[in-house]
Amino acid sequence: MTNNKEVFNKKPPQKKLQYIKKNAFTIFMVIAVVILLVSPDAKSFVLRQLMATGIFNASIDKKDADTVSLTNTDFTFTDGKGSIQNTSSLRGKVVFINFWASWCPPCRAEFPSIETLYTQFKDNPDIFFLTLNEDDDPAVGMAYLEKENFSVPMYQSSGNVPTEVFSGSLPTTVVLDKNGKVRLHHTGFANYASEKFVKEIEELINEQ
Question: Residues 6 or more apart from 119 whose CB is under 8 A from it?
């Protein structure tokens, strides 16, 4: 029994060209699907185009403020120098937490928006960006940031993270208010550089 590849190979050059023209769309779609399956960059590019529609803009819902207790948001993390801190030490600051990995296409898709948000608020002492890399090798995560020229600092979780904060899905983003309460908990990619989200972050910063 012959397959399509054998039939195609037996066709003369002119017939092959006609076959390609006739099936150009199908061939293109097959190639596109293969690329999306094997290339994280291609996947993140497609997701980024979807984000540009505005459908995936992040939003802070005030009703989320009382869903998680103060103690459930506390966990330790390390910086690039190995210094250990606890999120409890960040009381009095808005904390933007993002769990990501360099191999994760949705993480790659949303990271430019996180970089934009960070650039806008990095000099504000009332907000802390806790971007937690989940690569098995931290050097791989750092290499990705350097390759993309991202200035967002890289941290890693140390010990157990409460499941109310992170259950293992990447990316996951959590925003804590100054009292350590969850004001946003989002699993999946999103745009964190929209005008509305920036305004909501500013409102959290200005809360007393």
Answer: 151
* Whole-number Å distance between alpha carbons of 130 and 64: 20
Gap between the Cα atoms of 35 and 90, Å rounded: 42
Q: Considering the entire predicted model, what is its pTM?
A: 0.76
Q: What is the pLDDT along the chain (208 residues), one digit of tens a residue?
A: 455 555 445 555 565 555 545 554 453 444 444 444 445 666 566 666 666 666 768 888 665 555 555 557 899 999 888 899 999 999 999 999 999 999 999 999 999 999 999 999 999 999 999 999 999 999 999 999 999 999 999 999 998 899 889 999 999 999 999 999 899 999 999 999 999 999 999 999 998 7
Q: How far is CA 145 from the centre of its chain?
A: 13
- If 0-12 CB within 10 Å is exposed, 13-18 middle and 19+ buried, where does residue 118 land? buried
Describe the strand order of the beta sheet including 84-86 as a list of residue ranges.
Answer: 84-86, 76-78, 156-158
**Beta-carbon count within 10 A of 21 CB:** 9
Give the distance from CA 129 to its chain's centroid: 14
Comparing C-alpha atoms, which of 93, 153, 156 is closest to residue 128?
93
Distance separating alpha carbons of residues 40 and 176, to the nearest angstrom: 30
Other Cβ atoms closer than 10 A to 27: 13
